[in-house]
Amino acid sequence: MVIGVARTDFEKLEVYQLAERLADLTWRIALHWDQMAKATLGGQLIRAADSVGANIAEGCGRGSYGDNRRFAKIARGSLYETKHWLRRAYSRDLLDAGQIEQLRSIIDELAPRLNAYIRSIGRAACNPKTDTTDYGPRTTHMSTLVDDPRVIEFDVRTDEMLVNMGPQHPSTHGVLRLVLRTDGEVVSEVTPHLGYLHRCAEKIGENLTPRQWIPYTDRMDYLAGMNMNLGWSLTVEKLLKYEPPEKGRHLRVIIAEMGRIASHLVGMGAYGLDLGSFSPFLYAFREREKILDLFEEVCGARLTYSYLTVGGATADLPRGWLQKCEAFLEQFEPIIAEYHALLTTNSIFIKRTAGIGVMSPEMAINFGTSGPVLRGSGVDHDLRRDGEEIYTAMYDGYAFEVIVEKDGHYPKDHKYPAVPHEAVLGDCWHRFYVRMLEVVQSIDLVRQAIDRYSTAEGGYGEPRKLTEKLPKGEAYLETESPRGQMGFYLVSDGSSIPWRARARSSSFCNLSVTSDLCRGCLIADIPAIVGSLDIVMGEIDR
Amino acid sequence: MSGQAFVDQLKQKFGDDIVGANLENVDPWVEVTAQGLLAVCQHLHDEPSLAFDYLNSVTAVDYLETDPKKAAKADFEPHMQVVYHLFSMQHKHSLVLKVIVPRWRDDVPGQLPEVPSVAGIWATADWHERECFDLLGVKFTDHPNLRRILCPEDWVGYPLRKDYEMPTEYHGIRGR
Q1: Given this model, what pLDDT does residue A111 score?
Q2: Beta strand residue intervals within chain B, DSSP E
Q3: Contact: A368, B126; criterion CB under 8 Å
Q4: Superfamily of A10-143 according to CATH
Q5: pLDDT above 90 as % of chain B
Q6: Contact: A194, B149; criterion CB under 8 Å
Q7: With DSSP H G I counted as helix, E B as strand and the rest as coil, what are the percentages for chain B, rounded to 5?
Q8: What is the pLDDT of residues B146-167, one digit of tens each?
Q9: What is the CATH architecture assignment of B4-174?
């Protein structure tokens, strides 16, 4: 069946018909008033009541949604004014009980319908300008208007509804449950529910030695296991006041930055999926697979590595691995342009992400967000440069620029696609863009690290003894993992098992902004916003 | 951001609300009373030369030796430490604050110790304090929404406390 919208036929709008009835009824009532009442109250009342329908009609004739909405709102104002004059008339004994009942029934129906009508403007299923369906001669069309099934009613009443999104929804990135309070397509409240993946990691950490806990850190952010291993190892080393040898330092940079590339590739591919574009995901996973192959050669595991550990790494890089890694980077770098073509500069992608979920820098800082989410809002902060010395020492001597829009532009060290004019700093598009640029930056860092590693003298950093006693005290350290600042807090009572092991999750803070970021957006924008935060539930629930 | 001079400054401003400081630890910390916490945090946040606008983490550590043999030799009385890690985006410096409270208010088991919520100063604290309440049983007064966040709402007990015992059963699921 063909569905059409007779947009300019205001006569058939139910709101208009009600407004007509209201205007005529008030006229008939005022006709019997005395001269004094007619000249004062009567005139005002009739003018206000007539103006309701007149404005609905005028709005319809204007042709644009904006104008129509504006006039419909004026009509609403006139309706309120009518109510005022009727109240005055009632208090001056000009209305009898029957008239009041008649007026009340009209107004009680008209007021909510007018509100619904205002909301519905511009959201109709099809646009008359592009609707080319042939309805036959105009006159015959008019005659069948009243019960024409092809006509959609404008004044649709909408109710508030609670919608559960997740915990098994594919675009919630794991087991996240969002409860949306919706009114039609508009979301008025989002409440995240967490904990589906809670595995008491911190409690387990109080029962194992630091090196034994390394495998548990893998399973927090399971898309960047290497970076998690590194964060915990450095925290323990901070307490031990241990510094890995030169070669071990560069080995860690190679591994950590490769981990970042792999993680951002998932972030990018999955974001495409969230927005309904399947192919970028395949291209991203094809390349990520090669990084996993490299990691597998290093430590035997593809996802939960437990490779970097307290002291350095569990083993040195295998012979010939550096060449394979370099060959991968050589092959991978030109492919990034394809990703930009598929997503970054794709006009549909830009329409879905630019100007959506805009987060101010103040809000980003106040909520403790970090990583690309923080930098996407224009905050110039990267722990690889601004972190604690034990961490920045790892990147000492490396040339890199923090990826953030500063003074109106991003770093110019490479040729990056231009920022579209629709994008607003702090929106979903910028968060995605920062991630894409960080991939290029990581390639540079890995290349530099390979050079340094090949010329460095000494060992790669033997792991510390499994049951080594920790010094009494406590240490907290955050590192720049792909999703943001991953912090570990270690309290020791002097034994080999920590008194308290705590993981401060970056995604946990990044996710906490959803309620505020999603308020008032459309349902379809929820996956766009949540996806742009690039969360991993394993890390949030721990 | 944790030298003796800084601690003295705070002491001068807040008097007895600054209980003490440990400057020898790898991450030096300043201890604040629960009553004075809000005023101190507001000052740390607003004072331009400090500008601690970023709250990294709120957590707590339970100090209780459950092994009776070791308890006799333990060098601490049972207590709970609430730990705040702060950072300044502008000055790139950090600070650790601690509030020490009893494990149970008035030593009555079941009555949670109370600490004022700093969620009004840093939005990060909202979820972090919920987690701390959920896992360690610290009640943050005036928190906008102090509910469990990781455990189910009807969970009993505070799992990260040292004397916590895993329930034998939860809704028909065997626990131990």
Answers
A1: 85
A2: 18-22, 29-32, 54-63, 79-87, 94-101, 114-116, 139-141, 169-170, 173-174
A3: no
A4: 23S rRNA-intervening sequence (1.20.1440.60)
A5: 39
A6: yes
A7: 25, 25, 50
A8: 999 999 889 888 999 988 988 8
A9: 2-Layer Sandwich (3.30)
